[in-house]
Amino acid sequence: MSVACEHKKTIIIARRGGVDYVECLDCKQIFEAEDLEPVAVDDDD
Ligand SMILES: [Zn+2]
What would the mean pLDDT of 12-18 be, rounded to a whole number? Predict the structure, then answer.
């Protein structure tokens, strides 16, 4: 079983509609900076 990542190391990768998107350097997940919930990256916008 993998250890849950706490996403302590993140970088801002994008900003859209006033929302910052961050990437965790440990697990490579993309999150909204506000709530650190995983989001599906979709560039169709
Ligand atoms: Zn992480």
Answer: 93
Residue 15, strand partner residues: 20
Distance 23 CA to ligand 1 centre (A): 8
Ligand 1 centroid–CA 17 distance in Å is 23
> pLDDT tens across 31-44, in order?
898 876 666 667 66
Calculate how far, in angstroms, residue 6's C-alpha sits from the geometric centre of ligand 1. 5
CA distance 45 to 4: 31
The single-letter DSSP state of residue 8 is -
